[in-house]
Amino acid sequence: MTSNGVTAVLVLVTCLVVTCDATSYGVSISIYNVNTEKLTQIVADSQFGDAIAKEASTYCAENCDDPFKGNLSVELTGVIDDTPNSNVTITISSTSGDKLSVQKTEEMFEARVDKINEATGQKITKAGKKFFGIPADNTTNLVVTIVFLLFTLVFFLVVLYLVRHKVNHEKEHYEEMKERENSADAEIAT
Questions:
Q1: CATH label of the domain that carries residue 125
Q2: Are residues 109 and 157 in the same domain?
Q3: Which terminus of the chain has fewer Cβ atoms in its 10 Å neighbourhood, N or C?
Q4: What is the pLDDT along the chain (190 residues), one digit of tens a residue?
Q5: Do 46 and 95 have their domain in common?
Q6: What is the DSSP letter of 92?
């Protein structure tokens, strides 16, 4: 066998190994406006993982195959700083040790992200390739609303002022010309 033949066989074997091991289970989730130190504390707190496991169990009861119909567990690993967000890899497993696929995990997050955010007190902005948006700050919403209302009020007040105090230049000019004629006639008469 030539060196080209050996290379081709190695490439083929490598492709087969990679293809056979292509099933991935961990999904990276981004949590909004959380630094790495705080995320490490959140991950260490079992309530965060328990809340996600509960929502995953609820989702999988209706949408997953048999091994995932019971209580599920969550493994959180690999805290990565990606300022202003931090990421953590999440793997969801059944009691028998089967792992939920990346696709199903992303679908679960997409379907249950609001409930997970509510239960954990955190804002998950991304799970794998699914982006859920950046939450608006309540104070920002309040400020934008007040500024918009003030701008609208000022605009309508200016329009109202201009309508009520509209100066008719033609009428003023006509009255001025009439007064001049009258004063000129009065001077001629005297």
A1: 3.30.70
A2: no
A3: C
A4: 454 444 434 333 333 333 333 346 778 888 887 777 777 787 777 788 888 888 888 888 888 887 777 777 788 777 776 666 677 887 888 777 788 888 888 888 888 888 888 888 888 888 888 888 877 667 777 888 899 999 999 999 998 888 777 655 666 667 777 788 777 666 776 6
A5: yes
A6: E
Last residue of a domain, one of 81, 109, 131: 131
30, 77: one domain? yes
Dihedral, 81, 83, 85, 86 alpha carbons, nearest 10: 0
- The span from the CA of 120 to the CA of 41, in Å, is 13
The DSSP H or E segment spanning 128 is none
Residues 6+ apart with CB under 8 A from 92: 25, 52, 53, 56, 72, 73, 74, 75, 99, 100, 105, 108
Number of domains in the chain: 2
C-alpha distances in Å from residue 122, one per residue of 7, 24, 34, 142 = 50, 25, 9, 21
Work out the burial of residue 58: count CB atoms within 10 Å of its CB; fewer than 13 is exposed, 13-18 middle, 19 or more buried.
middle
Helices 36-44 and 46-63 pack at an angle, to 10 degrees, of 70
Q: How confident is the model at residue 41, as a pLDDT?
A: 81
The sign of the CA dihedral 172, 174, 175, 177 is positive
